[in-house]
Model the fold of this input.
Amino acid sequence: MTEIDKTQLSELVRKVLAEVLSDKVTHTEPVLEKKPTRNLAQENIARWLGHSLQKTQTRNSTALKLPIITSQDDAKAKTQTPSDNENLIPNPRKPEKLTAALEHSPARLGVWRAGTRYLTSVALKLRADHAIAKDAVYAEMPAHFAEKNNWVPLTTKATNKEKFLLRPDLGRQLDDKSLLLVREKAIKNPDIQITVADGLSSWAAERFAPAMVAELQKLFSEAKMTVGTIYCVRFSRIAVQDVIGEAVGAKVSMILLGERPGLGTGDSLSNYMIYGPKVGTVNANKSMISNIHATGHTPIDAARLTFSMVKKMFEQGCSGVKLKI
Amino acid sequence: MRLVKLSTELKGTHYNFQTVKEVLAKANEPKSGDQMAGLAAKDARERVAAKMVLSDITLGELREHPVVPYEKDEITRLAEDSLDLDAFNKIKNQTVSQFREWILQDTVSGQNILDISPGLTPEMTSAVTKLMTNMDLVVGGRKIRVVVKCNSTLGLEGRISSRLQTNHPTDDVKGIIAGAKEGLSYGTGDAVIGINPSTDRVDSCYDILKATKDMMERWRIPTQNCVLAHVTTQMRALEKGAPLDLMFQSIGGSQISNEEFGVSIKLLDEAYDMTLKKGTARGDNVMYFETGEGTALSANGHHGADQLTMEARSYALARRYKPYLVNSVVGFIGPEYLYDSKQIIRAGLEDHFMGKLMGISMGCDDCYTNHAVADQNDQEDLAVLLAAAGVNYLMSLPMGDDVMLNYQSTSFHDNATLRTIFGYKPTPEFETWMERMGIWENGRLTAKAGDPSIFM
Done:
């Protein structure tokens, strides 16, 4: 980041803040200037405000999002998003083009080398991020997380983290009490069954599922589609949704589940969807949206993408590899 | 059919097994996946007893006892119906023990082994692997050079290649290309520039193929491009005129596990024909497959067989298409199948050896996930071992960190370092290109290497 004085900085912050905030109201496309300092400021402000300001969108995504993350642990968020690629290459042939290129990827680029090995600083950063990922694997959803979101809590046959990691078969089955609860109390035959689950990152479920579920409920109710009882499952694998979807007789079932932590992202959420859910639905018949996190798809985007995919499922009567999108 | 001997004495204890399949499973080195499936030996002694019984079984007998019945499974039918009988007849009377020693003989060349390879069923391949130590697997694997041709020539002795895998969380092609350029500046990407898309869509598949091909043409890079979407997605992109060198698919060792992936032999045949007709590859080897121990079990398609044998069966499917690239994604599946670095390293060496023995161009995605008991040091250990074993290629990622798939594999730096340690070179075509670009001189990287802006 180039040197700028404090007056310039506060002026920049003020301008960008105004733009970011007005975007929140008007939903317009972001104006991204080429000056890296400005982009960084914009990005940081957006992050403080809980935006995910994505410069790297798929063509279908709208570019700037509504506020989504209600509470984000700043320290964690920073360590988990290594998109702050600093160029460490001494005397690159084309410095400006290099700086511009590095902005397009959150991968560990521009890292240079000691012989053919890593520089010490980047090697230690890698280790630090790995440490976070390791800790994310062993984190658990807080008590009453489901209730706080007005979801119904369920548990699987995996009774602790260790069992959950070593015995995926147990994490695919609801325990008897939960199964009974679903069979007796669930809203039956809904168009859409939504389930939230920890999977391999409870952080992902905690941070992104509430906003995504809220947006999904809004979109489906506007489209006059019925949404069933929303469940939140602890120590859960993807296939729990087969069990729930079949038990309630949903037309489409989806599970919002934390993926196994990577170094850059300890909190990546995915949505797996099935048209006509049945126990034992093969993966080829499941559709998915992955990479819902601070530097990937925002929950709002993911909800909109989900909504458009679900509409296609109803039109084509299928999901998974057969679904044409 | 002669009755196969399924019992032995070990230090005063009598061991009796019921089936060849049980012997195969219990003779396997310890894997958490086999334990989860309830197939593993109950202790170390039973494991050795099973290895002893297995060592006396002949290759002919193994052919008669496929782990999945012929009537039930198209992979078994493929392995049996495509067996080269002349090659098979040369080895059918050898016991697994004799076969192991034959492979390891100094007088037996890699070409000798490749000559009998079409006579091997996956069960034979898996069996001999179970009697090999890790160093056996290195020396055996190293011998067998499987050389393939697409736009460039892969697998020659004294060379090691890599797949550039610069994935992006939202498939931003600019980000993908920025990463690829940095990887190229380290001399990696000579096996393929192969990108996993984050969503399986025809348009992003098309866009990534186009962007990688444009870069290859702009800088005249002698390599291959590939997008690792589902085979049907790539076929649709190909129909729309996407420039595609290699057609990719994940495969497993049984019909059921392939159904889980949404593929069959028939569909793969169609994809193969279409790639030969419409693809942009110049050579005959145009397919790319990924596999991994445990995938059959995870799809509940293992038929009570161990994960090593199921893995060998996926190579029997792969070899039908003379693939340019095949690699197991060895540590990706997680601790429930390969618990820790010891199991991952063992599996990486086994998969490489089995692939080469079955005559396919074998690489490895030497990787681990954050919920396995493994770290960066373990992964580097396996990379060195695989390079010693003459692996055709490894993955090449920015610091090994896949920001889309959330796991760690080998890095630009690791691939460059392996060339330094072993004195290996890239593919001949790529080597010439690197010299022309000024990043390679006298068999090593120059001071310019590591600066992607030379391609900007």
Q: What stands out?
A: Chain B touches chain A through 68 residues (CB under 8 Å). Residues 60 and 92 of chain B are 4 Å apart (CA to CA). The mean pLDDT of chain B is 96.
